Fold this sequence. Notes:
Layout: H1 2-18, H2 27-30, E1 35-36, H3 37-43, E2 47-51, E3 56-61, E4 64-69, E5 74-77, E6 80-83, E7 89-91, E8 94-97, H4 102-109, E9 113-118, H5 134-151, E10 155-158, H6 168-177, E11 182-189, E12 199-204, H7 208-217, H8 224-230, H9 235-263, E13 273-278, H10 281-284, E14 290-297, H11 301-308, H12 310-338
Parallel strand pairs: 9-10, 9-11, 11-14, 12-13
Antiparallel strand pairs: 1-8, 2-3, 3-4, 4-5, 5-6, 7-8, 12-14
The chain binds zinc ion.
Amino acid sequence: MRHFRIFAAGLIGTVLLAAPVEMARATDKWQGAYCSLQELAAQKGLDFFWDPIARNATVSGPLGFARFHAGSEYFLSEGKLDRLPDKVYFSGDNLLAPPAVAGPLDRLSRPLKVVIDAGHGGRDFGAITRASREKKITLEIARDVAEELKQRGVRVFLTRDSDRFIELSDRASFAGEKGADLFVSIHANASTTPGLEGFEVYYLSPETNDYFLANIRSEKRIPEEGKTLLAEAARETKAVYWDLRQADNRAKSMRMAGQVVDGTRKLIERGSIRVRPAQFYVLKWTECPAVLVEVGYLTNRREEKKLGHSVYQKKLAKSIAEGLINYKKNEEKMEGRLV
Ligand SMILES: [Zn+2]
């Protein structure tokens, strides 16, 4: 991170050489029109960090960060160098910015949108054991994850908030309709081996690609959302487009799966946590990065008992939510490194 700051400062510095720094420029001229960057960030619920050595101010929110440099109109946002109509400068203890800075800050403060999908429902019970129904446990945990995320300022949409049946295609297209940034499907596992236990997170397997493309090329049924997306392009182009987008989403989904798993390490024994590629329908047809979480095995007595308890469900939900937030924060850092 330190490395990056120095690099970013160097980058902005280079730009500054072309346009000489005017730190002591007549502040009176701009008094009133300028606003305190720190105060504006606070108003918008964003974090403000000042690095006195690099003379950089970083404003960050759920969707990314913007980095300003005292004495420059240039700033970094979403991995790109952008420009304000006037310079940002220091006055007293305040870093002052022209009012136009509100635009880039608004883009950072748009809340993160997450779709939580409670697996199964209605006539689809999912895994059934003597004491448990998967559809009930997935709904309870999905609601808890939603609650945890809401407390962290995330906008959450549940594919279902009651015991009702939903088609897989409708679950995937729901995420597109809501403009979701992330999609998380909650399930509970079952096995014929009673000893098997563990928490698993799945992301889309790369091997699905050929099957995927073959499906599009052969005009097999694809979900409504996919149809709309692909409606106007030629068949071959459609397939390439879908493939490119999936490749990007797959990389992100893999990292998201890793963060969700990391989030649960304090709750679940190391040996019982796994990250795996898979070909689940909802992972294939969701437009945004997506993971499917198997919270545990209902066929394992010990795990079934834990999963039925609301205290454990809440702990698990909290870990999943933390993993998602950490994923998002990590992506922001990565965007920064790419500059
Ligand atoms: Zn399931």
